[in-house]
Amino acid sequence: MKVLASRPELCVACGACEESCAMAFFKVPERDRSAIRISVSPERADPLIAFCDQCGECIAVCPTQALYRAKNGIIRLRRQDCTGCLACVGFCPTLVMYVHPDDTVPFKCIACGVCVKECPADALFLMEVDVPEPVTELTRSIRFKTGEGTHGS
């Protein structure tokens, strides 16, 4: 499956990726409507580029099964099945499931590649990876017990 990947050392934090993502899915150039987020900090040499890695952890916490892994491996959301409980937003181990204050339905990166085409620095690209195994309670408990996949990684 193809997932979004980044080269933070090339990122110039121009926001073109954020604006193109918001335009593609919400028809507005508002960065808070983007499923990719760029942040710059004096503590970091390179910008932090945050987007969904398609891990699938969110699927297990969705009470209505609105989240699912599509045939192409990407985690998708059925808007009509979402109740807006935001369990997925709170549970996301990488903090990349977003919700806009004007909406109750969360959104995330679907590796469409719009941002890749708009990045002037070639900091983003699509990469082929294997589809991850389904997350199980045992996998989740082991993963979080060892500290892997926790917030901020």
Q: Could you explain the architecture of this structure?
A:
The protein has 153 residues and is an alpha+beta fold. It has one domain: Alpha-Beta Plaits, CATH 3.30.70.20. It contains 5 helices and 6 strands. The strands form 3 sheets. Strands 1-6 form a two-stranded antiparallel sheet. A two-stranded antiparallel ribbon has the order 2-3. Strand 4 and strand 5 form a beta hairpin. The longest helix is centred in the N-terminal third of the chain and has 11 residues. The two termini are 22 Å apart.
Summarize the structure.
The protein is α+β, with helices and mostly antiparallel strands and 153 residues long. 23% of the residues lie in helices and 14% in strands. The longest helix has 11 residues, at 16-26.
Can you tell me the number of structural domains? 1
Radius of gyration: 15 Å
Q: In DSSP terms, counting alpha (H) and pi (I) runs of 4 or more, how many helices?
A: 5
Could you tell me how far the N terminus lies from the C terminus, measured between alpha carbons in angstroms? Answer: 22 Å
The strands making up the biggest β-sheet line up spatially as 1-6
Helix content class: 10-25%
Beta fraction of the residues?
Answer: 5-15%
The backbone outline, from C-alpha atoms, is globular
CATH class: Alpha Beta
Element pattern in H and E: EHEEHEEHHEH
Number of strands: 6
Instruction: Give the rounded overall mean pLDDT.
Output: 89
Low-confidence sequence ranges: 141-153
The main pleated sheet reads as:
2 strands, antiparallel
